[in-house]
């Protein structure tokens, strides 16, 4: 049994060999700089001691080689750490995305794509940044600091003791001071967010402002919030600059302390000049890692929060039970559909995108519908009357609270989910296009069919001319925001997707926006072709589309208020359906 | 002069030139004091090494001087930094205010100047302005580094000219490499960002289309695509990081190599005693600081093309007749105290008799728009523009008010041609309530007034006419209620009526209201029109109305209806005339009737339940 957090961390771990390489590189990057002051000491002492120029030159060459190697090791470590961190976090991203895709629509109904980007990518980025920084700043910093202290302690116990005490004190002071800076920086960030929030609102409302003659006033308001930002930034800058100045002085004091001790020891003859230079250089070396360590303390909190949120997402579970003994739907041919006394309510966990029904209220009650294989049902009703919910139950995105949904004679709760997806197809009115090629948009990234078949399907739905006009044919990239694709064309693309899937039951949510007449005719033709030889449920927004259905259900407030064969309802002048047709001026 | 040079030069003067110069001078000690540090270290090490005979006390005094120097440097750092904050924020604010003022008030429509999303415009105002101010600011550390380097080189040359020369060569190399690498780094960075955006776009698509993916069973295929995107992003990101690290490494290596070369060359001189341990300490201390000059210069050079793009992009937000001087004009900083209140428009003294548009044509880039529309609105009339979705109703109103450019046509006010409708058809002549309510994160009162001088009675009347007075009375803070970003704390209907009240409070001759139906039910809309029409009869409200609507309460009340179909006038007249002679009107009317039939059916179902 693994907890989500350990699952997160496990995925970040690199393989054994990579880990060893990283450890070796990190060690080299720490040890090599530690050696250079030793060489300087030797150089100074030997120079003063009167050693030969050849000897001094070779010591200097050694210094050069060591310096270059040290920087090289640092570069190698950074490269390795970056590579391994990306590998690990990519594994985590893929795991998270896969896990989230496996969750029910009840989960997705509550979340915007923007939120999911934040959960799958944003949180992981925070973790990734920390992992790289951890290797480079925390591990390497601690190693270097420890190395310096050990070497100095061995060189001169007193100076080492002073340096150790000094590092502890300064580190503690810096950590405390950092915390002081947090509130004022947070306020400055808030003030800056307020400025740009105000600017964004004014730019979004530019026409209202101009047409109501409020431009000068809006600029004045901008000056006002900018003034508040200035005051907040001034306070933050005071703290920031004070902190930097304090650190500078603290390190100067440390250097002076060590140099003073060196001068004193030199006076008593217990220290060579070279050792004094060495101690000076080591003292200079502690500043950078100490500063970076303190800096990482702040990041640590963010990364922890990221790990926790990633863990939360992984802890989400499916709510629809898997069938104990899954049975497949008939592999070919149209599928019959039966809703048997279905009652449904969205609970807190399944709050949905529609806004009319608060959580927990019944959105469908006692709905019974039956379609023979190949028949088509038209659902009519206002927004929020329950049409979409019926569609969702048929796709088994949710299970009914009471009653059952049967497709092809089987209760959906007992059917293999993979078979549900293969044989039941949905065409929704907001067609999601991917920032990918036309081919990928049709096949949803699967190797479904060859190009000839894809072109044939596109031609079938009336997109032949459209395809011919594309610069790169099937390889043309479509924008994520459907750039270059009209609403009608997007709808036709969705039909093409459905044709490729060859389902036995189609749920069709008609586009409610008005299309131009030519596209509208192409859509109508495609609907006809898609429903031929298949069972269909149409959520109708156009009364004209109802001419093709076999049965009509008029929905209101989650109840079927009228249900029957189309021609029977149309012929009964007292029926709502007939009144509706009359009000709209559609001939019966 | 190049635009960037012009703008950055003017930026130094934007809050008064003395402020910039004093700010720069305050930084000088921070840049120059390390020179003294080096000299003190030299003296100290010469004493420690015994090169110069002295007592311990003198060495300790030198150590104290070292600390004292950094205390001074620290104090100057705080002073210079906080003094500079004013200039920095003032320069950025004035640039932003200039762009904002142009977008919000300059003659000519702003629609085509703005990018598609307001978020993108905000990004320009934030980042492009930041780049320009930063570039101007960089001149200060550059000057400091130049002074330091010159002085350091003189001091070093007086000790040993040859070693000094050798130390300069790698430093110059850093400068060249910084300039060279920063181009590469920017390219790699852009690529990494692009591929990163591809990953987030795919994740976003995947979850926006989760229904399509799940119902198609395409989860694995979509994940495999994510894996590909991830791999590409990893490679780009690692390269990007490597290039940045390389630059750091080059600098680090240069310092180390410099010190190594000093050791190498100093070896004979040191043996002879011409080059002391103190000199060595001075050289190693300066070696680190010397790289500041080439690094600052290199990064400034690499910032220049970016700044050129920033000037160009900000310029595109300004009106066509404005130039970079208008962008960088010193229009005043108001960090202490409020800016002078916006001038109240004088009474225009030319009360509306008739406003007319002839042959008005306005096309959108992506097709659509209105073609050759004639429109005549006389004082006291109620005109309704109607038509199907996408027929050009909103476009017609926006072109008339000069909010988007007209491609052809003339507009006249009482027979006199209107040059720039965008700045002419404003309060008190005209006021406008748009289709999508645009409210700001302020109090309700501020949202209604937006600087317009009106008392509580005038506000009360506007609230009443907009049928909003009961809602306001129920709010705990009344008019002082803060409505939240974009007005989110109001319901859709309240927000829409608030924008109507905003136009009404201005008591315009001509009130223009775009479609209210998206958030108001028929009953509320009926109430609103009857109140506004009643007020215009008894002279308390706007006399003349131009309304976009497809609702029966508005259509039935209209003196004249303009029916639009795909951008052209399909009919005009009263409702009776149009139902008789205009097929498009009949179609729209029956669609509206169907909608109301739904509502009736619903009402019956509720009564039955």
| Percent helix range of chain A | 55-70%
The major β-sheet of chain A equals: 6 strands, mixed
Report the oligomer.
heterodimer
Give the helix/strand class of chain A: alpha/beta
Termini Cα gap of chain A: 64 Å
Order of strands, widest sheet of chain B: 6-7-8-3-9-10
Q: Total number of helical segments of chain B? A: 20
**Average pLDDT score of chain A:** 85
- Main sheet: strand order of chain A: 6-7-8-3-9-10
Q: Provide the β-strand percentage band of chain A.
A: 5-15%
- The unreliable regions of chain B are 602-609
Largest interface: A-B, 148 and 151 residues
Q: How many strands of chain A? A: 10
Query: Helix fraction of chain B?
Result: 55-70%
Précis, in short:
By secondary structure, chain A is of the alpha/beta class. Helices cover 63% and strands 10% of the residues of chain A. Chain A is elongated.
Overview of the structural elements:
- The complex is a heterodimer of chains A (588) and B (609).
- Chain A is an alpha/beta fold and 588 residues long.
- Helices cover 63% and strands 10% of the residues of chain A.
- Chain A is built from 18 helices and 10 strands.
- Chain A has helices spanning 4-12, 16-48, 53-102, 105-108, 113-155, 157-204, 206-211, 215-267, 273-315, 387-394, 417-423, 438-443, 451-460, 464-469, 487-501, 517-531, 566-571, 576-584; strands at 337-345, 362-371, 376-380, 402-407, 410-411, 424-427, 505-509, 535-539, 551-556, 559-565.
- Chain A has a 6-stranded mixed β-sheet, with helices on both faces. In chain A, strands 2-1-4-5 form a 4-stranded antiparallel β-sheet, covered by helices on one side.
- In chain A, helix 6 (157-204) packs across helix 9 and helix 15 packs parallel to helix 16.
- Chain A is elongated and about 120 Å long.
- The model of chain A is unreliable at 349-359 (pLDDT under 50).
- Chain B has 609 residues and is α/β, with parallel strands linked by helices.
- Helix content of chain B is 64%, strand content 10%.
- Chain B has 20 helices and 10 strands.
- Chain B has helices at 3-13, 17-48, 56-105, 118-159, 161-208, 210-216, 219-272, 277-290, 292-317, 324-327, 393-400, 421-424, 444-449, 456-465, 469-474, 492-504, 522-537, 552-557, 575-581, 583-608, and strands at residues 354-363, 369-378, 382-387, 408-413, 416-417, 430-433, 510-513, 544-548, 560-565, 568-573.
- A 6-stranded mixed β-sheet of chain B has the order 6-7-8-3-9-10, sandwiched between helices. Chain B has a 4-stranded antiparallel β-sheet with strand order 2-1-4-5, with helices on one face.
- In chain B, helix 2 (17-48) runs antiparallel to helix 3 (56-105) and helix 7 (219-272) runs antiparallel to helix 8.
- Chain B is elongated, with a radius of gyration of 35 Å.
- Chain B starts with a helix and ends with a helix.
- The chains are: A alpha/beta (588), B alpha/beta (609).
- At the A-B interface, helix 2, helix 3, helix 5, helix 6 and helix 7 of A face helix 2, helix 3, helix 4, helix 5 and helix 6 of B.
């Amino acid at each position: 049994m693994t907890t989500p957090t350990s699952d997160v961390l496990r995925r970040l771990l690199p393989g054994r060999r990579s880990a060893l390489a990283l450890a070796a590189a990190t060690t080299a990057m720490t040890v090599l700089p530690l050696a250079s002051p030793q060489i300087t000491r030797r150089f100074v002492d030997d120079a003063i001691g009167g050693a030969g120029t050849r000897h001094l030159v070779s010591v200097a060459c050694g210094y050069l080689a060591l310096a270059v190697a040290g920087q090289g090791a640092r570069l190698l470590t950074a490269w390795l750490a970056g590579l391994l961190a990306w590998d690990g976090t990519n594994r985590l991203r893929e795991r998270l995305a896969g896990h989230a895709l496996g969750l029910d629509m009840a989960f997705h109904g509550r979340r915007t794509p923007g939120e999911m980007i934040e959960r799958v990518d944003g949180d992981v980025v925070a973790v990734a940044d920390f992992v790289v920084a951890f290797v480079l700043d925390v591990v390497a910093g601690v190693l270097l600091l420890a190395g310096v202290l050990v070497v100095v302690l061995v060189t001169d116990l007193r100076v080492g003791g002073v340096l150790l005490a000094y590092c502890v004190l300064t580190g503690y002071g810096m950590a405390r001071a950092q915390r002081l800076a947090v509130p004022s920086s947070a306020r400055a960030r808030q003030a800056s967010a307020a400025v740009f929030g105000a600017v964004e609102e004014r730019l979004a409302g530019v026409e209202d402002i101009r047409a109501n003659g409020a431009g000068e006033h809006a600029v004045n308001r901008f000056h006002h919030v900018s003034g508040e930002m200035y005051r907040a930034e001034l306070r933050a800058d005071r703290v920031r600059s004070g902190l930097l100045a304090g650190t500078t002085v603290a390190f100067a004091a440390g250097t002076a302390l060590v140099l003073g001790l060196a001068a004193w020891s030199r006076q008593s003859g217990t220290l060579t000049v070279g050792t004094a230079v060495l101690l000076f250089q080591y003292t200079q070396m502690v500043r950078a890692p100490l500063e970076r360590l303190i800096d990482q303390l702040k990041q640590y909190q963010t990364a922890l929060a990221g790990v926790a949120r990633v863990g939360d997402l992984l802890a989400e579970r499916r709510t629809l039970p898997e069938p104990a003994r899954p049975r497949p739907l008939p592999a070919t041919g149209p599928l019959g559909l039966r809703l048997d006394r279905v009652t449904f309510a969205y609970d807190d966990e399944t709050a949905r995108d529609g806004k009319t029904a608060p959580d927990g209220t019944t959105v469908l009650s006692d709905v019974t519908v039956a379609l023979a294989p190949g028949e088509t049902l038209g659902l009519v009703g206002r927004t929020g009357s329950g049409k979409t919910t019926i569609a969702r139950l048929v796709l088994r995105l949710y299970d009914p609270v009471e009653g059952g949904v049967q497709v092809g004679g089987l209760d959906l709760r007992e059917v293999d989910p993979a078979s549900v997806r293969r044989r039941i197809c949905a065409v929704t009115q907001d067609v999601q296009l991917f920032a990918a090629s036309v081919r990928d948009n049709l096949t949803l990234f699967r190797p479904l069919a060859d190009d000839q078949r894809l072109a044939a399907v596109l031609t079938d739905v009336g997109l032949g001319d459209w395809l011919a006009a594309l610069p790169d044919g099937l390889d043309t990239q479509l924008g994520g925001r459907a750039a270059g694709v009209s609403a009608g064309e997007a709808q036709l693309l969705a039909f093409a997707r459905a044709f490729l899937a060859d389902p036995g039951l189609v749920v069709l949510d008609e586009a409610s926006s008005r299309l131009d007449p030519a596209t509208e005719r192409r859509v109508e033709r495609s609907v006809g072709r898609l429903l031929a030889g298949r069972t269909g449920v149409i959520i109708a927004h156009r009364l004209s589309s109802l001419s093709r259905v076999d049965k009509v259900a008029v929905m209101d407030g989650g109840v079927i208020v009228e249900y029957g064969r189309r021609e029977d309802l149309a012929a009964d002048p007292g029926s709502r359906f007939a009144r509706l047709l009359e009000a709209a001026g559609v001939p019966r | 002069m190049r635009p960037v040079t012009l703008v950055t030069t003017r930026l130094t003067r934007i809050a008064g030139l003395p402020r910039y110069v004093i700010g720069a001078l305050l930084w000088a000690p921070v840049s120059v004091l390390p020179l003294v540090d080096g000299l003190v270290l030299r003296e100290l090490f010469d004493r420690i090494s015994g090169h110069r005979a002295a007592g311990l006390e003198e060495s300790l005094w030198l150590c104290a001087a070292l600390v004292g120097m950094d205390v001074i440097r620290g104090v100057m750092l705080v002073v210079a930094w906080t003094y500079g904050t004013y200039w920095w924020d003032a320069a950025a604010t004035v640039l932003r205010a200039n762009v904002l003022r142009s977008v919000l008030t300059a003659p000519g429509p702003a629609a085509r100047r703005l990018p598609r999303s307001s978020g993108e415009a905000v990004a320009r105002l934030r980042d492009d302005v930041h780049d320009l101010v930063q570039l101007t600011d960089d001149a200060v550390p550059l000057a400091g580094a130049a002074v330091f380097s010159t002085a350091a080189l003189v001091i070093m040359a007086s000790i040993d000219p040859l070693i000094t020369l050798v130390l300069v060569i790698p430093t110059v190399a850093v400068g060249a490499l910084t300039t060279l690498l920063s181009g590469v780094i920017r390219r790699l960075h852009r690529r990494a960002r692009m591929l990163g955006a591809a990953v987030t776009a795919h994740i976003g698509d995947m979850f926006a289309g989760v229904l399509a993916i799940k119902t198609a069973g395409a989860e694995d295929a979509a994940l495999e695509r994510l894996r590909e995107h991830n791999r590409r992003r990893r490679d780009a990101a690692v390269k990007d990081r490597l290039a940045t690290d390389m630059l750091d490494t080059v600098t680090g290596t240069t310092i180390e190599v410099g010190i190594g070369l000093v050791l190498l060359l100093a070896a004979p001189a040191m043996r002879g005693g011409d080059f002391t341990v103190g000199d060595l300490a001075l050289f190693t201390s300066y070696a680190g600081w010397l790289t500041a000059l080439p690094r600052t210069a290199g990064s400034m050079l690499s910032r220049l093309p970016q700044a050129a793009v920033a000037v160009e992009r900000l310029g595109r937000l300004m009106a066509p007749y404005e130039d970079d001087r208008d962008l960088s004009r010193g229009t005043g900083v108001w960090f202490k105290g409020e800016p002078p209140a916006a001038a109240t428009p004088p009474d225009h003294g030319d009360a509306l008799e008739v406003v007319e548009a002839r042959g008005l044509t306005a096309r959108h880039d992506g097709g659509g728009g209105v073609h050759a529309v004639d429109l005549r609105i006389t004082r006291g009339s109620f005109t309704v523009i109607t038509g199907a979705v996408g027929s050009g109703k909103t476009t017609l109103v926006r072109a008339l008010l000069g909010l988007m450019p007209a491609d052809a046509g003339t507009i006249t006010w009482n027979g006199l041609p209107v040059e720039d409708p965008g700045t002419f058809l404003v309060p008190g002549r005209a006021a406008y309530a748009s289709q999508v309510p645009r409210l700001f994160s302020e109090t309700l009162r501020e949202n209604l007034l937006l600087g317009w001088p009106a008392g509580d009675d005038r506000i009360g009347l506007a609230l009443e006419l907009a049928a909003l007075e009961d809602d306001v009375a129920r709010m705990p803070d009344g008019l002082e209620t803060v409505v939240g970003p974009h007005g989110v704390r109001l319901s859709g209907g309240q927000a829409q009526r608030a924008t109507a009240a905003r136009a009404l409070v201005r008591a315009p001759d001509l009130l223009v209201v775009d479609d209210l139906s998206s958030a108001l039910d028929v009953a509320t809309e009926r109430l609103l029109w009857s109140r506004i029409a009643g007020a215009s009869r008894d002279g308390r409200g706007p006399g003349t109305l131009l309304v976009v609507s497809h609702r029966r309460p508005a259509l039935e009340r209209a003196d004249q209806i303009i029916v639009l179909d795909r951008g052209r006038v399909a009919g005009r007249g009263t409702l009776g005339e149009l139902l008789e002679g205009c097929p498009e009107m009949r179609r729209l009317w029956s669609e509206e009737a169907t909608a109301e039939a739904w509502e009736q059916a619903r009402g019956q179902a509720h009564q039955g339940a």
